[in-house]
Design a protein that fits this description.
The structure is a single chain. This protein is α/β, with parallel strands linked by helices. The protein has 2 domains: 217 residues, P-loop containing nucleotide triphosphate hydrolases (Rossmann fold), CATH 3.40.50.300; 67 residues, Alpha-Beta Plaits (2-Layer Sandwich), CATH 3.30.70. It is 32% helix and 27% strand. The chain has 11 helices and 14 strands. The strands form 3 sheets. It has a 6-stranded mixed beta sheet, sandwiched between helices. It has a 4-stranded antiparallel beta sheet with strand order 2-1-4-5. A hairpin with a 2-residue loop joins strand 9 and strand 10. It is elongated, with a radius of gyration of 23 Å. The model has no long low-confidence stretch (mean pLDDT 90).
Length: 313
């Protein structure tokens, strides 16, 4: 894809005292794609979005929107963006329609255009029947949809979504994800953060995995899965709370611990070999095991390998 990226960050950094919240982060969002930024809590996702949309100013690094330097003309850059924050930015005493029209006027639309655009979005978000109800009477999923609509009033070409489905029921989440998929068909580019690995697998064309403020890996789903190579992964279940695999004779010569929890461990074989031989070796560990299974590496396994923890931690 040769089109100019809608968003390009180059070695963005942001420090708070001794904490480097974002550490030379570089990525781009292209027209017609969803770029997912995945990471555990505190990894730097929200700070990265705040820098990319100009809410925060970086200590160093550059941001380009449509090929133009953001801080040379931030007003023009922001007109190209729609930002949906993790926290709802709604007036609960106003109706859904009134919220949309208000944010449309803030974005520079005329009163007439705000009304027309609000009608379009209410229909697209399947909220027409509740348009006149005050937002405080909406369900969590409906509030999330109106929140999304407010960011779309001025028809931005670049949309930043910071965990837009957090805390809502599965049906509401499915509705929002379907709406997001339709947006990219018109060439919109989306920067998307989520705690839900299945969302990233379903939505994202490319993914960046971030932890401790650094991008650890980036690519398509297949490219990220390929980072596990031909490793054989074994899931062993048992009582590991008070166990230290480093103390098991010869264990670390044969296996690498990908993740250890009280009741489960994920390990990879250190070298290629017959899975049956490795299964026998695992059954000989000094713990009473309940189950041992061999599986193919997944995106979650890549995430675990890079960060050492689950996405939802």
């Amino acid at each position: 894809m040769n089109a100019t990226p809608l968003l390009e960050t180059h070695r963005l950094s942001k420090r708070y005292g001794d904490l480097r919240a974002v550490d030379e982060v570089s990525f781009e969002v292209r027209p017609g794609e969803i770029y997912g930024l995945l990471g555990p809590n505190g990894a730097g996702k929200t700070t990265s979005i705040s820098l990319a949309c100009g809410l925060l100013k970086p200590d160093s690094g550059k941001i380009s929107v449509g090929g133009l330097d953001f801080w040379n003309n931030p007003k023009a850059a922001r007109r190209k963006m729609g930002v949906v924050p993790q926290e709802l930015a709604l007036y609960e005493e106003l109706s859904g329609r009134e919220n949309l029209e208000f944010w449309g006027r803030v974005a520079g639309l005329s009163s007439r255009d705000s009304k027309t655009r609000a009608t379009e979005l209410l229909e697209a978000l399947t909220l027409t029947e509740r348009a006149k109800d005050v937002v405080k009477k909406y369900s969590g999923g409906m509030k999330r949809r109106i929140n999304l609509g407010c960011a779309l009033m001025h028809r931005p070409s670049l949309i930043m979504l910071d965990e837009p489905t957090v805390g809502i029921d599965p049906q509401a989440r499915a509705n929002i994800l379907e709406f997001i998929k339709k947006m990219v068909e018109d060439g919109v580019g989306i920067l998307y953060t989520t705690h839900y690995l299945e969302e990233a697998e379903d939505l994202c064309d490319r993914i960046g995995i971030i932890d401790h403020g650094k991008i650890l890996a980036e690519g398509t789903l297949d490219e990220l899965r390929g980072q596990m190579g031909d490793e054989q992964l074994f899931v062993i279940e048992g009582g590991f709370a008070n166990q230290d695999p480093e103390q098991w004779p010869g264990f670390l010569d044969e296996f690498k611990v990908v993740q250890k929890k009280d009741k489960q461990m994920v390990v990879s074989a250190s070298q290629e070999g017959d899975p049956a031989d490795y299964l026998k070796k695992l059954l000989a560990v000094p713990v009473q095991l309940e189950n041992v299974t061999l599986k193919r590496p997944s995106l979650n396994d890549t995430f675990l390998k890079l960060t050492g923890r689950d996405l939802r931690e």
